[in-house]
Amino acid sequence: MKNTPIDYQIVRDCISKNGLTSVGNASIREIKKLIDDIEEASGQRYIRMEMGNPGLPPASLGVEAQIEALKRGVACEYPDIQGITPLKKEISRFLKLFINIDVDPQYCFASVGSMQGSFATFLTVNRMIESKTKTLFIDPGFPVHKQQVKVLGQAFKSFDVYDFRGEKLRDKLEEELSDGSVASIIYSNPNNPAWFCFNEHELQIIAEMATKYNVVVIEDLAYFGMDFRQDYGKPGEPPYQPSISHYYDKYVLLISSSKIFSYAGERIAALVISPKLYHTNSGDLIKYYGTDNFGHAFVFGTLYSLSSGTSHSPQYALAHLLKSVNDGQYHFLNEVKEYGEKAAIMKKMFLQNGFRIVYDKDLDVPIADGFYFTFCYPGFSGAQLLEELIYYGISAITLDITGSQRKEGIRACVSLVHRNQFPDLEYRLKRFYEDHPL
User: Are 228 and 414 in contact (CB under 8 A)?
Assistant: First the structure.
């Protein structure tokens, strides 16, 4: 019987109970369920790094606005399928003040979290042209996006972009797009899980190749402005959040409230369709939607079918939060800098105990400290390392399920690790180092 910080037999029993033949290949939610069970059975608190849950209280301005909306009785009314007018207006203002793009409110929508936004986008975009049905994932990325296209029965391509940064990205995109089968490209910026950030030159390359092959670009901005090496938090002042929208006119932007406002539980996000894409016509849409217009198909076909609108009161919460941010009264990035500060401390602990950072560079500079970081331990695959760490009271996910080619790697999310747990983390890492000497 192994002498590990978490009782060995309890961990084995919980793995068996959950039917996991390989902990290392389990999904995020499967890992969460496993750790929940082990914590209950053992009475031990884990260092939980598997889920990208916000670790801060929800923005109080949003909570107050949502409560007020409920008191006004909005719960008995279906929301407008396109999103409530105040929210659409503030999304448009936010785009101008923090990305420096002009998008009319009619192209700004509410969605049930960015997850619904991406699902709706895959569903519609990949049916727009009959010969173009695939999504190209610029990986590593959010694992559930691939699950979405699989559920839809759609094909996809993917590649790990870490070795194709800068000008190398052009040739790689040419290789992936040249057969003409790709309808959409998706990536996150900052990147989940590697936390590197595409720069303006790389975004311009993506735009040029998307133009050449008539591909829609889906930009996941779940961690908007959270590259803390720059201050993207001053409304109407540079620097602005880097975005494909500076260079390309057929895009969808997904802007989540889950991390920047810690509003994950209410499932509310902003979705922006570029005017050029909204007004694109394609006869191949007619058999699904009865219209050849993309925007009409997206809103009154896909969004309507999925949920008949986005929950009413959270739209008022997000509208008020965005208005406060746009007016310069609420500085949202000041709230979430805690994640970067914790990441710096935690990475140091890992490095002092034999671990290494996997995605350690953003082009030629050190990776930023943020919501995620990646690590490995010599002699272990990512799957092996994750399963071993479970016995030491540390949970995370492997990079395998993110589309990464770095099979030795683990993704760590810092959000749910509280500072009062740092002594436990340090002790468990030291124990792991002692039990697995290099």
Answer: no
pLDDT confidence of residue 123: 98
User: Distance between alpha carbon 399 and the CA centroid of its chain, in Å?
Assistant: 14
Query: What is the architecture of the domain spanning 8-56+336-435?
Result: Alpha-Beta Complex (3.90)
Q: How much is the pLDDT for 27?
A: 87
What does DSSP assign to residue 132? B
**Per-residue pLDDT tens for 33-44?**
999 999 999 999
pTM metric for this prediction:
0.95
DSSP string, 197-221: ---HHHHHHHHHHHHHHT-EEEEE-
Q: Which two tokens stand for residue 342?
A: 């914790």
CB-based contacts of 22, cutoff 8 Å, min separation 6: 383, 387
CA distance 418 to 404: 28
Q: Sketch the domain layout of the chain as residue ranges.
A: 8-56+336-435, 60-326
In sequence order, the β-bridge partners of residue 366 are 361
Q: Shortest CA distance to 216 belongs to which of 195, 188, 194, 186?
A: 186
Range of weakest confidence among 20-29, 118-127, 223-232, 371-380: 20-29
Per CATH, the architecture of 60-326 is what? 3-Layer(aba) Sandwich (3.40)
Look at residues 120, 97, 99, 98 and name the one whose alpha carbon lies nearest to residue 110: 120
- State yes or no: pLDDT of 1 exceeds 80: no
**Cα–Cα distance, 405 to 368 (Å, whole number):** 21
Contacts 24+ apart (CB under 8 A), 39-44: 41/10, 41/13, 41/14, 42/6, 42/7, 42/10, 42/11, 44/5, 44/6, 44/393
Question: Nearest Cα to 96, choosing from 254, 241, 217?
Answer: 241
Distance between first and last Cα of the chain: 23
What value does the mean pLDDT take over residues 364-377? Answer: 95
Which pair of structure tokens corresponds to residue 330? 């609420």
